[in-house]
Amino acid sequence: MSYRNITDLHTHTERSFDGHYPALVMCEQAAEKNIKTIAVTDHLEMYAYYRDSFDETARLSYADTLAAREVLSGKIEILTGAETGEAVYDKALSEEVLGQYDYDIVIGAIHNLPDKDDFYYMDFSGDMVFYPLLDEYFYWELEMAKWARFDTLAHLTYPLRYIIGNYHRQVDMGRYSEIIDEILLTLIKNKTALELNTAGFRQPIGVPSPDRDIISRYRALGGKLLTVGSDAHYTEHLGANIEDAYDIALGCGFESITVYRKREPYFIPIE
Ligand SMILES: [Zn+2]
Ligand SMILES: [Zn+2]
Questions:
Q1: What is the mean pLDDT of residues 74-92?
Q2: Which residues lie at CB < 5 A from ion ligand 1?
Q3: By CB count within 10 A, which of 16, 21, 113, 210 is most buried?
Q4: Do residues 138 and 71 make contact, with C-beta atoms less than 8 angstroms apart?
């Protein structure tokens, strides 16, 4: 890798419903790949927290991460974390859960609208009218930014991976420039980071979430806290396209990216 300080702050283990490998294996592989800092951020879906046993996920993922940290001490920095999904749909529960663990980093994500399926499962083909769903998606992303009990906002523009990437629909993003500005300004005001999620590079859409335009806009508005994550669900995706993300960050005027330790931001030079 041409960058020295590779950080990957968004990864999933077998404790996630869509993960495959134990935390120790993920972290060992990350160390092998010369990743300096990794965060284990398994899914905690707040709208189904007890119904789908995410309380168990939280407990096991956290314990696995601490055990991996112990075993790999001196080889790689391992951060405890979680990807809280749909947290603003139940703020009281989310705040209670986040208070139960001494996380290094909490990612805030929206994968589905209230009482709807994950965008991943939706059919956007043909005449399907997706704008009302996107309108609602950005409304909830703004609500997340206002809530601000997390450290970094995950994969902003997530639905585009499917609407544009998988279904080849045209999306007029000009329609959302105002609310995206409001989301970015709210993150900045609340000292919450924006995530540059590289999963899109290896998906049909071919660009990260959010894309370079939004990263550049965030910087222009005064944003300084940028985290980078592969969203790896397999060992082979650990660190994937992090260098491309660093290229984008540098190109947009960032000299450092951010990691979180005990929920406090630290700047890591992009070098
Ligand atoms: Zn996610
Ligand atoms: Zn994820």
A1: 97
A2: 109
A3: 210
A4: no
Compute, in angstroms, the gap from residue 231 CA to the centroid of ligand 2.
Answer: 5
* Amino acid (one-letter) located at 168: H
Cα–ligand 2 centroid distance for 43 (angstroms): 7
CA of 111 to the centre of ligand 1 (A): 6
DSSP 148: -
For residue 127, is pLDDT > 90?
no
Residue 104 is classified by DSSP as: S
Helix (H, G, I), strand (E, B) or coil at 211: coil
Longest dimension (CA), the chain: 55
Third-level CATH fold of 7-269: TIM Barrel (3.20.20)
Q: Which residues contact 83 (CB under 8 A, 6 or more apart)?
A: 10, 12, 41, 42, 43, 44, 107, 109, 154
* Ligand 1 midpoint to CA 109 (Å): 6
175 CA to centre of ligand 1 in angstroms: 24
pLDDT value, residue 141: 98
- Is the Cβ–Cβ distance between 66 and 132 less than 8 Å? no
- What length does the chain have? 271
Residue spans of the domains in the chain: they are 7-269
pTM reported for the whole predicted model: 0.97
Q: How far is the CA of 136 from the centre of ligand 2 (A)?
A: 21
